[in-house]
Amino acid sequence: MKTKYLLISPCRNEADYMRQTLDSVVSQTITPEKWIIVDDGSTDETPAILTEYASRYGFIEIVTRENRGHRSVGPGVIDTFYSGYQQADVSSYDFLCKLDLDLDLPLAYFEGLLKLMDSNHQLGTCSGKPYFRNPGKETLISEGCGDESSVGMTKFYRVSCFKQIGGFVRQVMWDGIDSHRCRMLGWQSISVDDADLRFIHLRAMGSSQKNIIEGRIRHGFGQYFMGTHIVYMMAVALNRLRFQPRIIGGLAMFWGYFKSLMSLKPRLDDPATIRFIRRYQWACLFRGKDAATRALDETSAERWDLSQTGYKIPL
């Protein structure tokens, strides 16, 4: 089993959460060959904590960017990721992971992902499932992420797949577009809800820039940018009513989409990907997401060709 993997972590002002992530990574049953952490101009204790851990663990490398004055999700996070990507000889690694610093990972997390990759050579990207702690209780609450995509906070990639899909788009919804491009080229993308791969998201998904409502509005724009059809967007917003904050969360998501549509904001400049996404979304509506995804994966070998040029990574 190939075990050589590279972690790249963009971060900004993560002092409240990062020690749990750092401790859970350095204690993994299979540790990374290198972990590049890119500090995007933090103004809290983040730089001091990073210096402390880098002095103790030789595989941790710190890259520091100038302070942009604010946290920027979507394009800002991916810009920061690529600042780390450019510091590594990525071709010398088998696997690559974009990892957030607000997570508490089980200690065999990466060993489990490596086993998944070893069991299916068409698996391009995978992850476990994010949960958050139920305040005042011992129970965990799922963030409700679908099985058809690896999750954005731990995007674990086969390097050959990452290069072929052109890496991450520098915009909101980068963590959905990548999985669609995987399937376009015959790769598979999954997140797995095994007990050994469940991890704790220490900060509610979508709340890192301002608050969770702004996060839902931003997600609506992301769906618009990706090319999602308005009918499918309605279904997504209705499905979100199952999760907190109920009603207002789904409405905020649809408003983000509708406002972007009415404003004629730019969309992903990739007609082939948008056509593929919409065909998949219609199949999901009429057949169910599990059946639509399974049908694509069953025919993936017909599209899977490692010699394909694919997309260029936007360095």
CATH T-level fold name of the largest domain: Spore Coat Polysaccharide Biosynthesis Protein SpsA, Chain A
Per CATH, the superfamily of the largest domain is Spore Coat Polysaccharide Biosynthesis Protein SpsA, Chain A
The separation of the N and C termini measures 30 Å
What is the mean predicted local confidence, pLDDT? 92
Main pleated sheet? 7 strands, mixed
Poorly predicted runs are: none
Shape, principal axes of CA atoms: globular
What structural class do the secondary elements suggest?
Answer: alpha/beta
- The side-by-side strand order for the widest beta sheet comes to 3-2-1-4-9-6-10
Helix content: 40-55%
* Helix and strand sequence: EHEHEHEEHEEEEHHEEHHHHHH
Rg from alpha-carbon coordinates:
19 Å
Approximate strand percentage = 15-25%
**Structure annotation, total helices:** 12
Number of strands: 11
Based on the coordinates given, report the CATH architecture of the largest domain. Answer: Alpha-Beta Complex
